[in-house]
Amino acid sequence: MSSEHYTPAVNPLPPVVVALVLFIMGIELAFTLGARGLVGGPGAVGWRLDALQSYAFSADIFDWMVQNGRWPFEHVIRFVTYPFVSGSFTQAVFVCVFVLAMGKMVGEVFGGFPMLLIFVLSGVGGAFAYALFLDPSYPLVGGFPPVYGLIGAFTWLLWRKLSLVGANQARAFQLIAVLMGIQLLFGLLFGGTGDWVADLGGFATGFGLSFFLAPGGWARIKGCIRRE
Predict the structure, then answer these.
(1) C-alpha–C-alpha distance, residues 15 and 34, integer Å
(2) Hey, how many other C-beta atoms are within 10 angstroms of the C-beta on 173?
(3) In a 3-state reduction of DSSP, which class is residue 57?
(4) What pLDDT does residue 2 have?
(5) How far apart, in whole angstroms, are the C-alpha atoms of residue 47 and residue 69?
(6) Which of 153, 195, 197, 202 lies at a CB distance of 3.0 to 4.6 Å from 122, suitable for a disulfide?
(7) H-type alpha helices, the chain
(8) In this predicted structure, what is the pLDDT of residue 5?
């Protein structure tokens, strides 16, 4: 006998999460296979380097644009493209794991398009933080800043839930505190490029956007304004 109301053991992933992961891993597989000479011919060996030169976010280029008041599209687009160019296969895998986990939780509550908007704009926020608070000589690559934006949205959900039950809302920030602590420890032990600043900028962007993009967010904000 078959049941009319079948409930899957695992909830399906939002399509936008699947699309993001396939896009990131598709690019990374092309780089990896090309570097091994399995696709693309001899020129494929340099695909990753070419992509980094064209699509990674550069604080030096950002400073040049600010100083000269010129914003060429091929450089402005770096704010959006750098999360999709990973520095290594391992980085791409970790990014995809976090997108699957955080994206699923955020997407199920916020919806697919708001979740994608948080991902993209958190990457932009992370790049701005990286350029404004540091003087980095290394380009910013990889999807961790927008991943931290999803963590920011997830933290907002916890923060909101704790406020509704009258619990200590500071508990919602335990995850980001642990992750930042691990990053700082690794930076002290093995050195680092200051990427944690971009990650923190992505987290703050994702958390802030959640006030507007969460279901009923605009209504709550208008209500607060009217009460004032």
Answers:
(1) 28
(2) 16
(3) strand
(4) 47
(5) 31
(6) 202
(7) 15-35, 47-55, 59-68, 73-76, 78-81, 89-110, 112-133, 144-164, 174-190, 195-213, 217-227
(8) 54
- Quote the tokens at residue 34: 């090309």
* Length reported for the chain: 228
Query: Quick one: pLDDT at residue 1?
Result: 44
Locate tokens 């914003």: which residue?
A: 71
Rounded CA gap, 206 and 147, in Å? 9
Q: Helix, strand, or coil here: 191?
A: coil
As a whole-number percent, the residues of the chain with pLDDT over 70 amount to 88
Q: What is the dihedral of CA 98, 99, 101, 106, to 10 degrees?
A: 130
Instruction: Sketch the domain layout of the chain as residue ranges.
Output: 15-227
What tokens appear for 210 in the block? Answer: 């959640």
Q: By three-state DSSP, how is residue 3 classified?
A: coil
Q: pLDDT at position 218, please?
A: 60
Q: Distance between alpha carbon 159 and the CA centroid of its chain, in Å? A: 20
Residues ≥6 apart with Cβ < 8 Å to 44 = 30, 33, 34, 35, 37
Q: Return the SS3 of 140.
A: strand
User: Angle at Cα 158 formed by Cα 154 and Cα 162, nearest 5°?
Assistant: 170
- The CATH homologous superfamily for domain 15-227 is Rhomboid-like (1.20.1540.10)
